[in-house]
Amino acid sequence: MTPAEVHDFFERLPMFGIKMGLDNTRNLLRLAGNPEKDLRFIHIAGTNGKGSTGAMLECALRRSGLNTGFYTSPHLTDIRERFRVNGRAVPMELFCNCVEELLKAASYGTDHCENFTYFEFLTVLAAMIFSRAGVDAVIWETGMGGRLDATNTVTPQAVVITNIALDHQAYLGNTVEEIAAEKAGIIKDGAPLFCGVMSDAARNVLLERARNTGSPVTGPAPEITGKVRYVFSGNRLCQQFQFNGRQVTLALPGAMQRRNFRLVSQVLAHFAPRWGFDFDRALDALEFVRWPGRCQWLNERLIIDGGHNPDGLTALQEALKEVLPGEKFSVVFAAFKDKEVRESLSLLAPLASEFIFVPIRETGRPCWSAEEFAGMLKELAIDIPCRGMDNGSTAVSTVICNSRQKVLVAGSLFLAGEVLDTFSAPRDILDLA
């Protein structure tokens, strides 16, 4: 298949259709020859932080000499970002060949075609790609929830759950305990569980599941309490802090990333003797970790973050207050209508000199309008100037050209991807190595 034919195929699949249950994915894996059987997985779930936690683990393992696969979602600008081999998005030729092979295995286009959703197909495709690449370890990120997520068809070497907060309530439940139960579904018999910082209510649900599966539980590591310093290493903004008597340089800013680091350090300590890599070398590698679209300093005036719920935006607020205390931004903001955004606006208001509200392009999902956002600000008694513009890239360009104001893009990974597509080189997103 050509890249154009592959693109057309994915365009025809229902992008946001969700079909609960694992039977379709298991059947598609069987038709593909069960490529997951060849692989060692670290399975990651969590409301926020699972992508950046995965990026830290991938970078540390890769720079310690292991060949890595990293499956993540959603993508920012190119679907191949979801499938990284040794930090790089899968080459186009291999991607197209694997898509074509999987479609043939599923009898696509015939009366005997197997049913599958967009995410089910991508998940099996990821296992195929990583099996063909012969990777030593796969960082395997859930799409949503865990128990009924298509990724929950593998047997992991370890399970990592970063945190639990309210998000995707329509699918996962209306309480932290209900959401925790869905994410706990990825905990498998005997596989060690690594828990991040979360409420006791959420943690207790995970502990109960771990007791039932005989899974040893670790985490989080002790809190990092010393002074944090920010420095630039190359073009990366890094935070430096003391951890267990040594200095760590982490190229992702903010307190949330230190919380994620505490979890990552324990996973690396567990696997270092088992997989034969040096723990200290793995920690040193975190100076080079990159995770586009997550509190990313694209340049001195443009910061891009895909935080789309209150927990994620609280982390963004914490990071900016640490790095740029007292700074105000032109906040370019967008959100889908299935997101409750009033709390998000309240969290961003202390950082904003103005709000610029934009739609999210080319998704087909309804967005909140600038007029609706303005009404929310009025209801919340937030007296900050606001205006609407046609799209995020135009909004960023307008501010940068007409003022000296720093710009903060927030509210959606889809908006982050749109702006990155305009203001960064494709290689900077496709290649984390």
Topology of this protein?
Elements: H1 3-12, H2 23-31, E1 41-45, H3 50-63, E2 68-71, E3 83-85, E4 88-89, H4 92-105, H5 118-133, E5 137-141, E6 158-161, H6 169-172, H7 176-184, E7 193-195, H8 200-213, E8 217-218, E9 229-233, E10 236-243, E11 246-250, H9 255-275, H10 279-284, E12 296-299, E13 302-304, H11 310-323, E14 329-333, H12 342-348, E15 352-357, H13 370-379, E16 386-388, H14 392-402, E17 406-410, H15 413-423, H16 426-430
Parallel strand pairs: 1-5, 1-6, 2-5, 6-7, 7-8, 13-17, 14-15, 14-17, 15-16
Antiparallel strand pairs: 2-3, 3-4, 9-10, 10-11, 12-13
Helix pairs in contact: 2-5, 3-9, 4-5, 7-8, 11-12
List keywords for this structure.
single chain; alpha/beta; Protein-Tyrosine Phosphatase, Chain A; eight-stranded mixed sheet; six-stranded mixed sheet; 16 helices; 40% helix; globular
